[in-house]
Amino acid sequence: MLIIGIAGGTGCGKTTVVNQIIDSLPEGEVGVISQDSYYNDLSDMPLEERRKTNFDHPQSIDFSLLEEHLKLLKEGHSIKQPVYSFLECNRTGKTVPVHPTKVLIVEGILILTNSLLRKMMDIKIFVHADSDERLIRRLKRDVNERGWNLDETLDKYQSNIKPMHLQFIEPSKEYADIIIPNNKYNTVAVDIVRTIINEKLA
Ligand SMILES: Nc1ncnc2c1ncn2[C@@H]1O[C@H](COP(=O)(O)OP(=O)(O)O)[C@@H](O)[C@H]1O
Ligand SMILES: Nc1ccn([C@@H]2O[C@H](COP(=O)(O)O)[C@@H](O)[C@H]2O)c(=O)n1
């Protein structure tokens, strides 16, 4: 199994890049694991409290479970991945089966901050977009899709998102083998990654 890690700040375009990579690849041969599925279980807190959580800090992620799942997949076993709800700010209690594939993409803002995860990755990619671009994209998404209003999103950006980005995410760029500039759609970089994957699948 080839494990590819794709990190980068919120709104940099990780999900978009992942979708572009897997679009033209044979179905069933490439799997995707998102760090978002591994946010800690916060069922012991009311929603109001959960919404105040710093979701940009590494401690908000259940890295042990993510590591265990990657290890199992690498060994050829299937896993039951937790299903996360952004609206509830919690795991739903449901799981989806994920089966081993020849190539596995792991994506998330914090995945390159964890040394055990980094050791499991064959290729480490960091997607870069300028902070103003990312903030604009993030504002649109949080308001349209994730149940936050404009003021809440801007407050979160100042209190958690920006400081955590500077403290944890941006420094993890140094571990990347490839940095993809993504202020504009970058088809050349995506094609290079696809070529590497196709070689593995051949
Ligand atoms: N290069 C780009 N140019 C313009 N918009 C983009 C670009 N890449 C992604 N987007 C848009 O920005 C938003 C966030 O992208 P997404 O891939 O979800 O980022 P991430 O997964 O890193 O948070 C989405 O609405 C997406 O369509
Ligand atoms: N309940 C939650 C949990 C996380 N977030 C934010 O998601 C961002 C990471 O996801 P990306 O798709 O942007 O990589 C992170 O910045 C968290 O603040 C959230 O809004 N609500």
Automatic annotation (TrEMBL):
Listed GO CC annotations: cytoplasm
Assigned EC number: 2.7.1.48
Superkingdom as given in the UniProt entry: Bacteria
PANTHER family named among the record's database cross-references: URIDINE KINASE (PTHR10285)
Protein's organism: Zobellia amurskyensis
Reactions this protein catalyses: cytidine + ATP = CMP + ADP + H(+); uridine + ATP = UMP + ADP + H(+)
Main location: cytoplasm
Family to which the UniProt record says this protein belongs: Belongs to the uridine kinase family.
UniProt entry keywords in alphabetical sequence: ATP-binding, Cytoplasm, Kinase, Nucleotide-binding, Transferase
Molecular function as annotated in GO: ATP binding; uridine kinase activity
Protein's name according to its UniProt entry: Uridine kinase
SUPFAM superfamilies: P-loop containing nucleoside triphosphate hydrolases
Pathway it works in: Pyrimidine metabolism; CTP biosynthesis via salvage pathway; CTP from cytidine: step 1/3; Pyrimidine metabolism; UMP biosynthesis via salvage pathway; UMP from uridine: step 1/1
GO biological process, one term: CTP salvage
Annotated compartments: Cytoplasm
Phosphoribulokinase/uridine kinase domain location: 3-188
UniProt-listed NCBIfam families: PRK05480.1 (NF004018), udk (TIGR00235)
Annotated Pfam families: PRK
